[in-house]
Amino acid sequence: MRIGDAAAAADTTPRALRFYEQRGLLPPPVRTASGQREYGPGEIARVRVIRELLALGLTIEDLRSCADRLDLLAQDPPPRCGSVEPGAPASGVVGRRLAALDAEINRLATLRETLARCASGEPPTPSPGPVDHLRGESRITTPSTPLPSESNPT
Description:
Layout: H1 3-9, H2 14-22, E1 30-31, E2 37-38, H3 41-55, H4 60-64, H5 70-73, H6 92-119, H7 132-135
């Protein structure tokens, strides 16, 4: 089937199919004599897997690192993914993505707490910046002179 039909079958757009091809997630499709892309059921299944993995929070770069194995996930039934034992830490691409998500959740939770404290009138708690902690300084400082908006008109 042509790119428009293939995109509709995979619930995406022709642009996305070309993008996945450019990024190495989708192998170059067979071309007709006139140069148009032709897709089969295998490519459609692979695109659905790509979209499901992206919806789970994996990135294009995550998928590129295992692009040679994406067809395995399109099999019926797909192979079991992840650790064999429940509760065991995930490894590989999934483990790295989980660690990145956990770090981002922690960063956002801290940011939310700080913003909530500021909104309730509490002064912000100094937190060390990436370089400042080496000098023993904090990122949040109180200016020694009033800001222009705080100064009294003369």
